[in-house]
Amino acid sequence: MDELQIEPRALAESLQAGENIFLLDCREPWEYEAASITGSVLIPMRSIPQNLDKIPSDRPVVVICHSGMRSLDVALWLRRQGFRAQSLSGGIDQWSQEIDPNVPRY
Question: Catalytic residue at 26?
Answer without folding.
Answer: no
